[in-house]
Task: structure prediction
Amino acid sequence: MDFARLWLIGERARKRIRLTPEERKFVGEIVPAELSPLPSLPYPAKVRHPAGFSLSGAPVRTLTRSTLVLCAFRALGPKYDAESGFYHRIAADLALGIMRANFHQGEPKGTFCCAQCTLIILPVLEAGALRWFDGRALADDVRRLVEKKQWRFSGTTNRPLQNWALGQG
Result:
């Protein structure tokens, strides 16, 4: 899988830049064919994000799923998950992670397992790309946590990642 290309298309999708026909084909045909073993796919141990920061460990998995959802939402339209079993599994897994953090672990609504993963899913929430809940309202809640330095944002955070997630860099 060409993860570097996926990250670049994900950035274009996040910025709401119209995707080219080649990018749409990559998202709609090539990615599902190459990544169909998800969620058992071995994720890269470390990635270099186009925004200039590196991630390793669990945030790589969250970045991959979030990027896939955002790309599918932009390339295939709002019903992407109803039309593709592959993207439905990815979106449902991401949505369940968000809900699990709140219902099972008592974390604030819209957050994920940690500050980094929460920042990574913020663009997906802001796009409203998960049909099971009001992502924009959850995104507002997450932004308030960051601004008020609450929850896991009370300490040190990955500043480049935070700037990217908040659209500040």
In short: The chain has a mean pLDDT of 90.
